Amino acid sequence: RKKWKRVVGVLKELEESCETTVGRLRQVVDAMAVEMHAGLASEGGSKLKMLLTFVDNLPSGSEKGIFYALDLGGTNFRVLRVELGGQRSDLDPDVEQQPIPEQLMTGRSEDLFDFIASSLHRFVEKGNDSVQSSITKELGFTFSFPVKQTSVSSGVLIKWTKAFAIKDMVGKEVAGALQQALARKGLNMRVAVLVNDTVGTLALGHYHDADTVAAVIIGTGTNACYWERTDAIIKCQGLLTTSGRMVVNMEWGNFWSSHLPRTSYDIDLDAESPNPNDQGFEKMISGMYLGDIVRRVILRMSEESDIFGPLSSRLYVSFALRTPAMAAMHKDDSPELTEVARILQDVLDIPDVPLKARKLVVKICDVVTRRAARLAAAGIVGILKKIGRDGSGGITGGRSKSDIKMRRTAVAVEGSLYTQYTMFREYLHEALHEILGEDIVRHVVINVTEDGSGTGAALLAASHSSSG
Ligand code: ADP
Q: Does this complex have an ipTM over 0.85?
C-alpha cells in the first residue's frame, strides 16, 4: 500500500510540474511574441532565429502552367509536378517518392545532386514533357535543413541535420549545386525558389485560403513560419519587397522561456540528447519526444515501486516507447485497457500489469500530450499576437477589445501529431478557445494541409516564376 502511495506521488508531481493554466499559457504567449521581436531586432537576439525567406508573395490561385518541385529533408525524397489552370482548384499533383541511398547521405555533394537530377530527368520524361524543351521549366526546391538565405532562390547550408553529413556542402550555395547538376543532365529547368518545409505549408494553405497568415508543422519535429511586414524586420533595414511583406521562418522548435512548465524528465531527456540546450520547445511538443517522456515517467514509477513488477531493462532504452504507441495507449477505452496491456508487454517487456496501473499509464499519456498540445496552442497565439490578430490590438495594446474588428485569420497546420493524434488535436483546440476567448476564437480557422512541403514549393515556383 505504501508503494502505491509513492506512485501516486510521482503522478501528482508530474501533473503539478506539467500545469498549464490559462494564466501560464498567456505568459508563454507573451514570451513567444517578445522573443519574435527580439529575433527580428538583431541576428542572435533570441533563441528564435527568425530566418528571412525572401518569399514576398504567396500563391493566390491565379497561377497558370506546369510547375515542378523537389522535396529533400528526410530519408525519402520526392519529385512532384502540378498543373495550374489559373483558378483555385483541388490540386492533384503527380508525386514520385524514393529513398536516398545511404552512401549518398555522407558522400560527395556532386553525387547526391546528380542522383536528384537523374530522378527528376526520368520523372519529366515519364510525364511526356520534353526534357530539353526551349521553354525553361520552373522548379521549387524544398530543402529542410537550416539555410541562410541570400535570395528567394539561393542560400547557404548552415549545417546538416538528421542522417545527412556531406562535408563539402556546408557553407555552400544549395540551389546553385542543384542548378549545376541539372545542367550536367541537360535539363532546361530553373530553381525558382529554395524553401523550408513550413514555407511550403504556408504557400499551400494560402493557395486554398487567402486569409492564411501562418503555418505550423507538428510531426517528428515542430516549426512555424508566418507572414510579416518587412518594416518589422529590423535586423535587415531597408528590406524592400513589392508586397511590403515577407515570410519569416521562426525555427520555433528552439523557443525557450522560463514560463514553460518543465519537469525533471524534460531535464534528463535534454541532457541525454545529442543537442542539449537546443530545441527546448520541440522537446516538449513533437512526436520524436513525447513517447520518451512517458517512458521516463514509467521508469521512475517502476524504480519506486513494484506495481509494474520487476524492473524491465527495456525501460532504460531511450525511445523504446514511440509516440504512435503512446497515442494507441492513450485512446484505449476498452474496460480492461487491453491495448495498454499489450503495448506494455510487447514494447516495454512489462507483462501482467494490474488494471489500476494500466489506468495510471493512460493518465501519464494524457498529462504529457495535454501539456504539449496546449503549449503548441500558446505558440500559435503568440504568432497571432505578434501580428495583431489575437484581438488584443498588438503587443503594445492600448485599445479595448470592443474597438477591434477581428479579421478572419487562418493558420495552416500539418503533421501527424495534429492529424493522427485525436487527443492532441482536441487539447490544442480547447486551449485556443481558453486563451483567445469565444469572441476572438471564432475568427480563427485552423486548416489542415497535406504535402504542403512539396506542393507548396511548386506553387511558390509559380508565384515567383520569371514569367511573373
Ligand atoms: P515528419 O516526419 O515529416 O514530421 P509526420 O508529420 O508524419 O512526418 O510526423 C511523423 C511523426 O508523428 C512520427 O515521428 C511520430 O512521432 C508521430 N506520429 C505518427 N503517427 C502517429 C499517431 N498515430 N499518433 C501519434 N503520433 C504519431
A: yes
